[in-house]
Amino acid sequence: MKVLLFFLLLSILIIPAAVFSLPQQQTTVETPITNLPLIATFEGGQRYQAGIYPVIVLSGSYHEMGRQYGGLMKTELNDEYSYLINTVTSQGITKEEIMKSAREVPAYYPERIKEIFTGMSETTGRTYDDIAFLYYGPIFLLLASSNSEPVPASCSYLAAWGNYTKSGSPVVSRNWDLVDTIMPLTEWYVLTIFRPTDGSNSVATWSPAGARPETFMNNKGLFITDDNCGREDNAPEIRPEFITEYYRFMFDYSDLNALEAAINGTAPDVGWIVDVAGPDEAFVLEKSTDRTVKRTGDGVIAAANHFVDPSWNLPDPPEHSLSRYNNLLRQAEEAKGMIDAEKMMEIRDVCIENGGSKFCHSELGGGKYSSNHQIVYEPQNQTLWMNVMDKDWQKVELSPLFEN
């Protein structure tokens, strides 16, 4: 159990990735719901291609969607699994130890997630424990590959709306910043659309195949992601893992007020900075294990890896976090009234060495860090731009993909 707790403490860091490998029934037929080329189908699920990134659309029960995920991404999931297990075991951690921890990971997960895992297992040839290992694969990789404690540099957020944007509607962005040890996972990123038939919302996630997502959008125009809070804050008792609760938030809540209430009412297992947006505004929730503080802005808000609200009465934040936070606000101020998706991508593409917020294989704490993936999103029209480090931005219209 101590091994599991160490993994979960490391969950302040995580990652995603994808590749151009074709599954199952290949076809060149155009989909009737999007202009993306249809590459394959499996049991009611479809796989499209957006540039170099797979886009999978899953429909049905959670078990059925898990089967479709496994069938459409079988090659990527198995390749990623082989890479992770070989890398981790090469560092002296036995497969038995890995699987023992993997079995403990889903113990407190919602039934929906367990059903997805079960379905993925049935169509990939992997065990349920293997699928759970993939879900936390990036954490296992960080633990196995790090010779020292990782620097808590993990993600940043910038949202603009009102008189900061051309349209007045929100334009939100996030960088997922991690040590370059994680860079190999950028080979397996996938944009996944879940369209459950139980009446829940449609949900999109962006992550490495099978890995725990930290970037979520739904068909009601809601958006949620997170940043490392930069402080050790562990719950005094066992609680469900907070980031996996994002599935519940996105499946079950359809307006910003209800989403905020749900987040406020969920005590996390560790402290987090939670970034939230909807069709009309955006805000940040600074969440410790026993308190939540909301931060808003007059058309702009940013977050990095420290709690900003002065009521926390904390020591000065680390320079890497404060500089990224200040750089984002300065860049937004310089672009005030001109921010659209294109301008936001320009802001996000400035390396920290040049006055921006992006880690570009940057030196930090004796290692190299990068913005493993980035997104820019317009909640009102549900348009997403996404990339992984060292690759181009890719635009995807989510609205037609969300439709059941």
Topology of helices and strands:
Layout: H1 2-9, E1 25-26, E2 38-42, E3 45-50, E4 53-60, H2 62-72, H3 74-89, H4 95-104, H5 111-124, H6 128-135, H7 137-145, E5 156-160, E6 171-179, E7 189-196, E8 203-208, E9 216-218, E10 223-228, H8 245-252, H9 256-264, E11 272-277, E12 282-287, E13 292-295, E14 300-303, H10 319-334, H11 341-348, E15 362-364, E16 367-378, E17 383-388, E18 394-397, H12 399-402
Helix pairs in contact: 2-5, 3-7, 4-6, 5-6
Q: Could you name the key traits of this structure?
A:
single chain; 404 residues; alpha+beta; Penicillin V Acylase, Chain A; eleven-stranded mixed sheet; seven-stranded antiparallel sheet; 12 helices; 18 strands; 25% strand; globular; disordered N terminus; Peptidase M1; C45_proenzyme-like
Structure description:
The protein is built from twelve helices and 18 strands. An eleven-stranded mixed sheet has the order 1-2-3-4-7-8-9-10-11-12-13, with helices on one face. Strands 5, 6, 14, 15, 16, 17 and 18 form a seven-stranded antiparallel sheet that branches. It has a domain at 156-181 and 223-237 and 263-402: 4-Layer Sandwich (Penicillin V Acylase, Chain A), CATH 3.60.60.10. It has helices at 2-9, 62-72, 74-89, 95-104, 111-124, 128-135, 137-145, 245-252, 256-264, 319-334, 341-348, 399-402, and strands at residues 25-26, 38-42, 45-50, 53-60, 156-160, 171-179, 189-196, 203-208, 216-218, 223-228, 272-277, 282-287, 292-295, 300-303, 362-364, 367-378, 383-388, 394-397. It is of the alpha+beta class and 404 residues long. The protein is globular and about 50 Å long.
